[in-house]
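input
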Amino acid sequence: MDKIALTAGALYVIVLLRAGGTFAVGWLAGAGARRSRFAGRISSARFQRAERAIQRWGAPVVAVSFLTVGFQTAANFLAGSMRMPLPRYLPALFVGGACWALIYATAGLGVLEVLGRLFAEQTALGVSAVAVLLAAMCGVVVYRKRRATLPSGDSVAEES
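output
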């Protein structure tokens, strides 16, 4: 249990620094955009409505974003660039970051322990499992690249 608590604590500090830093960078980028040639676009009524909605309702989105993969950085940056007030942002950061740290500490340590036992007890099976995972990941990357380079309207089935 001490290992999980220590790992969760370390991950919590990491996520607070990373997500808080992303929020700060977004805040600075938003401030810079407000002083740039984009200031006219940013001052439009439509943009102001969107900014007010994010300032008011964005905190739950920020908190839930920590349970997703690949969305949390965008959510934190957007919250900063749209000037979400700190009294709304910080609780979302603390709650979402705690959930993220606990999930990764428990599930991450569990996966590492299983892989460690697998390699120690049945090395060939462990190597095979890693090879299959790597091959699957490579297959996904190749598939996505192939789909991205196809002209619109074409599909993989039409190529065959």
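quick obs: The mean pLDDT is 85.
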